[in-house]
Design a protein that fits this description.
single chain; 185 residues; mainly alpha; Arc Repressor Mutant, subunit A; 2 domains; 74% helix
Amino acid sequence: MKDTRERILETALDLFIEQGYEKTSLREIAERIGVTKPAIYYHFSSKEEILRTLIEPILAVQGQAADSLQIKPTRREWSERISTLIDWMLPHRRLFELFERNQGALESLAHSSEFYEAHIAMHRRLDEYFADEATPLEDRIRVAASIGVVMSTFSFVGGEAFSETPVEELSTLLLRVINDVLHVD
């Protein structure tokens, strides 16, 4: 059985996706799981803290991604890293729905947190990789296209369309497409 904290997070995620962060109240979260509002305050100091807790896993992945870009990966290494990213993203698909449907709230939260710094660091390293003329232009374009394939599958282009696709099937197909784009076996 799930503990109250876990149920609060799951319910908040559902409501934030269904009706938006701004339109969801702590009272609604409490009512949906059958606890009092003070019970929520026992676990979280605010609705914003719930949102921050929900996006923490993405912070960790962004930090790892930024760190991994310090070394110039080959196309094969990019394939392996993107495969690892897909393996992480698939069980966390709902977080991408959260992002897609609550961009305003997340943007204002981002500017006041470590999320913003981690996100900017990751983009800065990606920009450095893509601007590095020592890496062949074809490689840079193939990597950018591969990242685009993954992100569009989980967000605005295909997020809902692929949400019911079984994890193994989606993973297999994504890896096949990415390896085609990267031209690796």
